[in-house]
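Lab notebook, bench 4. Still working through the backlog of constructs that have no structural model yet. Next entry is a single chain of 301 residues. Request: give me the C-alpha cells for it.
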Amino acid sequence: MKKLSILFLLVCISVSVNAQTAEELKKEIAPKKAKIAKLQGEVNALQAKIDALPGWRKGAFGTIGGNLSGFNNWYSRTAPNASAGSFGITVNGFANLIEEDYFWRNSGSINLGWVKLDDKDNPTDSADFETATDVFTLTSLYGKRLNKKWALSALAEYRTTLIDNFNNPGFLDFGVGFTWTPTSRLVVVMHPANYNTIFSTGNTVFTSSPGAKIVADYTAKHNNISVKSNFSMFQSYKDGNLSNWTWTNSLGYKIWKGIGLGFEFGLRDNQQEAANSQGVALTAADNKLQSFWLLGMNYSF
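Model written out:
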C-alpha cells in the first residue's frame, strides 16, 4: 500500500510538472508572436517602399480547370451511354512602367474553354470538343501625372475572340480623359471622350459610336492570396443599346512554389452581341446577363 501511495504521488508530481511546463511554454509563445507581427509589419513597409520605386513591374498568373466523365448503361440519365468533358484555361499578365511624372500600364488576358458531350447511342451527334468560352483582351493606358493621384491619360482597349471568328467582331476603344490612382492597387479611368470601334464583316448589327469609357482595376497580393478585379464600361452617346460593360474577377491561392488554387468569374452585358447571336434586330434582342466561371489549379510567377 505504501508503494502504491508513492507511485501515485510520483504520477501526480509528473502531471503537475508537465502542466506547469506547458503553461510556461504557452507564456513564451505570446511575446514571440508579437515579435513576428512587428517584423511582418516592417517587411510590409519595406515592400511598400519597393513598390513605390520607379521602374517596371511585371507579372502573370493563370488558372487551368477541367473534368472528364463516362457513363455506361447509366439508366437514370437521358443518355445512359455517354462521355462528357470540359476544359478551361485563363492567363492574366501585366507590364507596368511607373515613373514619378508618368505611367504606362499594359495588361492582357486570355480566357478559353471547351466542352464535349458524346451520346454513344446517337451516331449523328458530335464527339468533338466545342468552344464554350473565347475571350482575348489587350489594354494599354498612358498617363501624365498632374499630382500623385490624378493624371491626364489616354487608353486603348481591344477585345475579340481567338478560336472562333477572330476580329469578327472585334471591339476597340480609344479615348482620353483622366485617371485616378488613390493607391498603388487601384486604378480608375474616366474618359468622357472615347470612340468604340467595332470590326465586323457582312451584314451585322454591330455599330461603332462615340461615348464615355470608365474602367476600374484592382490588383493586390495578400501573403499567399492574389486578387484581380477589372470593370470596363462603355456608355454610348448615340444609343443606349450600343453600350456595354464587362466585369472579370480572378482569385489565386498559392500553396507551394507558385502552384495553388484559382477561381475566375466574369459578367458581361452587351445588347449588340445578343442581337448578333440571336439573328434579330438590335432592339428585338433578348439581352440576358452573360457569365462564366472556372475553378481549377492556379500558377503565378
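Notes after review: Residues 53 and 245 are 33 Å apart (CA to CA). The chain has two helices and twelve strands. Flag for follow-up if needed.
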